[in-house]
Amino acid sequence: MGVSIFASIRFVLIVGSVMSSVSLADLAFGVRTTPHSSYRSELPERFYGACPVVSAVMDEYIGPIVWPIRHPSGDVSEFELYYTERETNEGRERFIVATQGNLTDPVLLRVESSCVFGHILDGAKCDCGDQLRAALQRIHGHGSGMLIYALDEDARGHGVRAHFEMYVLRQHHEMDTEEVHKELELPVDARTYSYVGSITDHFNISEVVLMTNSPKRIEKLEDQGITVADRRPLEATVTQHNEQLLRAEKRELGYETGYHDHEHWIDRLRSKDVSGGKFLIVESYRESVAAGQLDELTAEALPVGDMFLVLYATQRPDIGTLDELRRAGLDKVVVLDSGECADLKTAEEEAELEVEHYEVR
Fold this sequence. Notes:
By secondary structure, this protein is of the alpha/beta class. It is built from 13 helices and 12 strands. The strands form 2 sheets. It has a 7-stranded mixed beta sheet with strand order 1-2-3-5-4-6-7, sandwiched between helices.
């Protein structure tokens, strides 16, 4: 892509004798001094993670304060809030712990990473805000539970600055997730969750029901001696704004969800034992609602209702059909590689639909 847009930053890091070892994560949080690493030898093995922990146990807990929280249902319920910190080789990590009711094992638990776009700006591009609200609503409905909010884990542990850098590369340089993280020299997910054991120990919790879509998060808690009795998914509604991120999370992070990525539906489309052009209409990437021959495709194939609808097709339908489908509620078209990719942008503009070309490997 030519000269990196972060070349100037890297130049400063290289020539600056003081900052020569500072990472992009450091840029996100500010330059930090390195504490004495000798403290680590005194820590229990269960608290070690990819980020070297200087103090596994939190310094102190400030609280509780009683705080009313408004839920999506319209209900308002009171939570007890605590603030705590710990020291790591990356600097101080900050956490808010929200609890409600009697914390009797197994405790309903959500571990939430901060997200300036989803939590503060209520953005529609990710599902972070939806998951936070759903977790607190679920704790309220259950009558008890805990939410651990990691204030310094924006962008899956890389920080707010890195989060902005990622979207600059996505939106202005049209990079996908793999290209973005390669350019920034960052792993897709830097979180270790090594703080959870210390917090649950403080509240005498040894067994939890974890609200997550990630089996890997279960493993990280179990490695700390926490028993995960069950997993409860937190799935957001698929929309035109968040569908790319949700599919990427399933593909790249191994999330277990009710929706699927393109490969799943294309395999379904190609497995249909019919000749000629074929189509498959999918609702929210969760279930197929119509299938058949392309010459039979009309607006009547679309279900009625407010849902995200995707058309998978072996060939691009004509502009008239696409326009009819759009007016009937179709949101997106995915066309298999058929040598027509040059026509897709024109089709998208004329039909006012998102038309994506998918190269079958």
